[in-house]
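User: hey, got a sec? need 5-methyltetrahydropteroyltriglutamate--homocysteine S-methyltransferase folded
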Amino acid sequence: MISYINSPNIGKYRELKKYTEKYWKNENIENYKKFLMIIKKIKIEKILFQTNNNFSNIIIGDFNYYDSILDISCLINSVNYNKIINKKEYFFFARGNNNIVPGKMTKFFNTNYHYIIPNNYNNLRINNNFIIKDLLFFLKIGIKTTITLIGPISYLLLSVNKIKNFKKLFEIYLLIIKKINNINNFKFQFEEPILSLKINNNWKKLFVLFYNNLKIDYCINSIFEINLKNNELLKKIHFNNILINNINDNNNIYINNDLNKSNILYLIKNKNISKIFIKNCKLLPYNLNIEKFYNKKYLSFFFQKINEINLIKKIILKKINSYDLLYLNNYILYKKKIKIETNIKIIKKNNNIYNNKLLINNTIGSFPQNKEIKISRKQKKNFLLDKYEYNNILKENIYLCFLKQIKFNYKILTHGELERTDMVEYFSENIDGINTTLNGWVQSYGTRYVKPPIILNINNSTNITENWFDFSKLITKKKIKIILTGPITILKWSFFNEKMKFFYCLKLSNLINLEILKLQKQFNIFQIDEPAIKECLPINKSFWKLEINNFLFCFNNCTNFIKKNNEIHSHICYSLFNDVINFIKKININTLTIESSRENFNNLIIFKKINLNLGAGIYDVHSPIIINKYNVKKNIYLFFKKINPIKCLINPDCGLKTRNWYELKYSLTNINKILYSIKNNF
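Assistant: Yep! Here you go:
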């Protein structure tokens, strides 16, 4: 009667991250065995959780090792590899090695979940047996499961070559289905988020062609809300079930509004409800019970969502007991009013000035956080280290970070963001009304997990960054770039009430604006990071114009007090720039830094005629490969081919804190040597 579509797969205590990274660090047999054991443990936990809750469909296939799209790419060999792909080789296609270039990466629809873009259909075949092994294992212990796979139409949409290769893709999908059904007649669940988009007739024909020729027990899951214009398409498909009217939203951690009095009466009276599905829970944290903040009574994480669904099931079957009535009696929805200022002016875009010096080298912001910082942060959380001692440790490391940047001959320095656990969490901890969690981890990409804050209201902020930058000013007289997280990214990388998003965003922009006002007495370069611009736009493009204008106003409101002679930078990464180029044209910035090395700098073409200084990310930070001089030189000249050198800034990609100082020393030294020789040629 009840079922979910997807569930978190990082482990209740981030076990997958810990053992995967331990294996990457030292690829020996012992670490590999531990890595395989933790994978098996998480998979078994997911299945047992469903059986214990009497789910009608026991879902398998929603676990991924690094990225769910890459799982399918390795299964059907769209990575064009000549051997069978084992779990060791799987990671090469995400992170790269000396022989394999890592795949291009972007964000999945309007979420912060990143995926590796499929790009090769020349050699499709079944290239591993991960999912078949899992099916056989659970079948042996008497559990018949439902296989969930990303649907072929959506997979085609997310790939590089798109619609040209549909025949090859359909054939390999049918072969996978046939191979699985030779074992047993399994149910299939196909995830087709393409249904949330406005699609043309060619895509609709492909949809009908594939699904109307399937002779299996299957259902289709849209993941997101289905676009109303696709309803006619769904009528043409002979499916068993389509999961449209799901109970919960993907990013909604608020208590289920279906459990109010009127809906409870409806559930009791309506006898036709046969199945209840909970939407994609992959991007929800596991459990709210261990959290300590007061406002958690208004919220529910993954385990609480399942309890709510079980309660709805009991209401329908009229089997509620006194404990259930007590739970319903304490059910509270957050209804406090949010106050905002009404005296707001429109901010005009400043005229841009190109670089005074040719080919300035700098970084986007963060630098590696060593073991001393991480251990002292844990000690502070456990009250083994007081705030004064902790701050002194950070100041020592900030001082060393400046020395290293001066040694690399950087013209614009940053303090390394060493006091920040995460670019959003740090700001949220210092804003009254936003709650941060102890264990509310969700996956961003690979083993990069984040703890999204929870926005219920936004009041005043404490001193967020001023003390750290005041200390930075005492160390050096060189130019220091102030790194701030923008209001759009703080909002999108948090859990919030969708109806209130522009009010929240406006209040956040006012707080960032005040922070800049305090800092510009001593500093004149400000970077307002907005990597989440594309994610904030709804999937339905018909609403984009209004949303872009609202978010544009919020961003420009941050720059209200910035003096005309001061520089405003921003950073956007792993985005589809064709979608947000109109936004970028209108935001009040002088310089934009993006990620281009994985794209082979092809994503720069759209920036040719835009009046902005541009940093393109010469070095792919998200790969463990240390870039050599040849590749540095090649990347810089590719950059110059696309963009006029007078507008170019030379910088590595964002996320230097994910690497260690050993890797950075060689990579950044190689960049500086090549840059020095190029400058001499000019």
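Quick note: The CA atoms of residues 489 and 532 lie 5 Å apart. Let me know if you need anything else on 5-methyltetrahydropteroyltriglutamate--homocysteine S-methyltransferase.
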